[in-house]
Amino acid sequence: MKKIVIIEDEPSINEMLKMMVERLGHEALVCDNGREAFSFIKKHKPDLVILDVMLPGMDGTAIAKELGINEETASIPIIVTSALEESKSLFSGVSQVKDFIPKPFTITKLTETINKYI
Questions:
Q1: Which Gene3D superfamilies match (predicted)?
Q2: How many angstroms separate the Cα of 49 from the Cα of each of 6, 54, 65?
Q3: Distance between CA atoms of residues 25 and 2, nearest Å
Q4: What share of residues in the chain are helix, strand, coil (percent, to 5)?
Q5: What is the DSSP string of 44-83?
Q6: How many whole angstroms separate alpha carbon 4 and alpha carbon 57?
Q7: 3-117 has which CATH code?
Q8: What pLDDT, in 10s, does the model give residues 29-85?
Q9: 92-109: burial string, b at 16+ Cβ within 10 Å, e else
Q10: How far is the C-alpha of 116 from the C-alpha of 28, rounded, in Å?
């Protein structure tokens, strides 16, 4: 069983992602704001992070960059999700961002992407 941290502020998307990750046989841990995301990830040491772009407190771009410069978190793969497909370019220099999935996404696409990086 792998540990996946979900950083998403929309409750309905959080619940759907959590159920999907658990159906894949993994542990799902949810954080709903950007202010706590970095410390949450450091505390739980996940195998993968699913990260939204638009978050209260700190956006997904800043979180991904912070994870990349910290020795403890730099190797954790990140899958970014966003309704703003144009925000994909903001992550071009962040090596641990492995994929970008535009919202709305299908369960099939997200499942394939998670399985690819776990």
A1: 3.40.50.2300
A2: 6, 15, 13
A3: 8
A4: 45, 20, 35
A5: H--SEEEEESS-SSS-HHHHHHHHHHSTTTTT--EEEEES
A6: 21
A7: 3.40.50.2300
A8: 999 999 999 999 999 999 999 999 999 999 999 999 999 999 999 999 999 999 887
A9: eebebbbbbbeeeeeeee
A10: 17
